[in-house]
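Discussion board: Methods & Data

I've been asked by a reviewer to show the raw model output for two of the constructs in my manuscript, not just the figures. I'm not sure how much to include, so I'm pasting the format here to get opinions. Each protein appears as its amino acid sequence followed by a line of discrete structure tokens. Is this the kind of thing reviewers expect to see in a supplement, or should I convert it first? Here is construct A:
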Amino acid sequence: MDWKRIRRIVIGRWNWKRPFISLASIYILLAITACSFADRIIFQPPPRSYTSELAGLKMMSEGGTEPIALIHLKAPPGAPTIIYSHGNAEDIGQNMDIFMEWHDAGFGVIAYDYPGYGLSPGISTETTTEESIKRVWDYAVAAGIPPSSLVIIGRSIGSGPSVWLASSVDPAGLILISPLKSAFTTAIPLPFAIFPGDRFPNLKRIKNIKTPLLVIHGENDRVIPASHGRAIHENSPAARKSFIGIPDAGHNDLFAVGPDEIFTETSVFIKEVTESSPSE
């Protein structure tokens, strides 16, 4: 058997261009895959955890063709309200304990499900989640809540639509919990973006957002490393900003490991930024 001939057929003749051609081919293949399937990979809706009987549930139809499932736990008169965007593999029903903690602290809470999550119909993409949070913002303002009383909170993938919204409206404050620098830099931990079509470029957007910022991140996070949260904090031009690292906390157990610190820090921040915001 002529092994040299077989090798030439399989891998071709060696020359200095071949490694670069191979790398370029791999890059093109990965780039096409990333652009084509990114949204399916990023968004992983879990089985629905609630029914239409969920406390405070509303199917909001204003501002779009598809309804959005949201809960609205109303604030006492004059108190701040949170607009909350949840993590990837969860829905609003799984976060009711968190919402009730903030509500019991005297804040209103408006939390919504992305398209395809919970009772919200549709398919989640970067665009549809951004459209959803803007509709929720408009709903809050139409309900009589001034922007100076609204604080945006985004957790994990929810940091994407939250940062995007903060770049186009004027909330009292922005809280990011376990945020990502961008979707691709989370999946491919390199110091530079290597693929086109990245989703949720939070690090790029935060550089133009002067809204007061609080970042909370688990120091032991293996899904979205704490370096992402620190980079966002460091690149924010906000005059009032802070980073809180929760020791021994990972990604999914953050609220279980550090609930007291999280709720204390967020409550102090919300009160400070809404009391200092000009009334409308």
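Construct B, same format:
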Amino acid sequence: MNIKRVILIVLDGVGVGELPDAADFNDAGNNSLGNVAKAVGGLNLPNLQKMGLGNLTDIQGVPPCDNTTGAYGKMAEKSKGKDTTIGHWELMGVVSDKPLPVFPNNFPPQLITEFEKRINRKILGNVHASGTVIINQLGDEHVRTGRPIVYTSVDSVFQIAAHEKIIPVEELYEICRKARELCTGEWGVGRVIARPFLGTSGNYWRTERRKDFSLPPPQPTLLDKLSEKGYDVISVGKIDDIFAMRGITQSYHTTNNKESTDKILELLDTDFNGLLFANLIDFDMGYGHRNDWKGYAAALEAFDGRLPEIQGKMRADDVLIVTSDHGNDPTTPGTDHSREYVPLLLFPASVISQKSIGTTYDFTYISDAISSFFIL
């Protein structure tokens, strides 16, 4: 089959059941899709069901489908982690043998001292925390002192929160760039994340002007190979941040699922030749990290409702791939990513030889498939 365009959509944080080593990551029992479906009394995902989603795990309301319109399977992450960065790297062909460094309690004093020196400010926090919680815990002191709030999570991240009226967003981005320059080697976290917020005492809330400053991939990815061969590599959402713009020829930095889906539909009306790579962030950022299983369920049903729009704009030489980068089960007590299988859905099914792909034991199945479509 002669393929001209591949549309790859990552449903950020949508897992389909715990991996065999989930207990090593304190994630035993996690199943983002299955547990959310139980929590809401069943999901209504008829279009994803037709693609084969219900064939991957027990999802209340989404039974298995015998005659799918797509090829279906699930993937286990080979890289040692459950981070957004290495998950996306692996999707694009780079397996990480070592996990990116994490700081489960706080960052080492020498790192913080050097960071404060470079930004000419003292900081607040330096703790492991939920971002929505810590801005309300330390927001008043931040407003009073002007000190940025620094925190981390179970993921490999150095997060910096600041009120937009105290530290303007562009200044916060510059502070993050200095942190990114510093965070290398043993301090080389996957992402430095700007977390701007607004509001008043007792009611601070994060804005959509978040920005990620990622560690560049350690070796060339599929994006580099495609662009070097003259193909279009178009990113939607936070893909540009995750890959530090490496190999990307056009970038559209959208900030939520609706905006991202609208942009995908707009781009499908253009005559590009190559890869359209999109990340839909709301499942993870908006709901998984906040234990909001009702919002997570609603976001799944909203995406499912727009799948016919995407498929309706596809041409005879297009392929759609829907997958994820890790889990983020909002029904569990924790608020972090979960070590889970991720879905692998390809449409139309005719692009490969069998409808049931089964289980692949690394995410590079996707980069290999796309390479074969474009004969790299």
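Answer (T.O., handling editor elsewhere):
This is acceptable in a supplement if you add a one-line summary per construct. For B, something like: The two ends are 15 Å apart (CA to CA).
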